[in-house]
TrEMBL record:
Name of the protein described by the UniProt record: VOC family protein
InterPro entries: 3_dmu_93_MTrfase, Glyas_Bleomycin-R_OHBP_Dase, PhnB-like
Domain (PhnB-like) ranges: 2-127
């Protein structure tokens, strides 16, 4: 048995988001991408199914053909323990670019330094310096 985080995008952003995330993390790569073709239920060229890794952890994503009344929520987030403050600040700046922070970088007592942001795709990231 294996459990994998699955990210559903609704605006044809899956491939852009996946490539953005892969560019930010070490030991990250796109493993496989399958696109919708002509006559299939999704927009031609959008992601039917993709697999990628971040820091060795596997993720899957799609561009959902049906439009749903929901999207990502901060109640489900990706938690990253950073190795150093420079890494934390780099990720916080990149992931939070142009977005309002849910919790700005600070010492909240449970961590040396912590920040929480929603990225431009709506995915929520908790960045921690243990």
């Amino acid at each position: 048995m294996k459990i994998t985080t699955f990210l559903m995008f609704q605006n044809g952003e899956a491939e852009e988001a996946m490539n953005f995330y892969v560019s930010l993390f070490a030991d990250a790569k796109v493993v496989a991408v399958e696109h919708f073709g002509p006559g299939e239920p999704g927009a031609e060229g959008s992601v039917k199914h993709a697999t990628f890794t971040l820091a060795g952890q596997e993720y899957r994503c799609i561009d959902s053909p049906p439009v749903h009344a929901f999207t990502f929520t901060p109640s489900m987030s990706l938690f990253v323990d950073c190795d150093n403050e420079e890494e934390l600040e780099r990720l916080y700046a990149a992931l939070g670019e142009g977005r309002q922070a849910l919790m700005p970088l600070d010492d909240y007592g449970f961590s040396t330094r912590f920040g929480w942001v929603n990225d431009r795709f709506g995915v929520s990231w908790q960045l921690n310096l243990p």
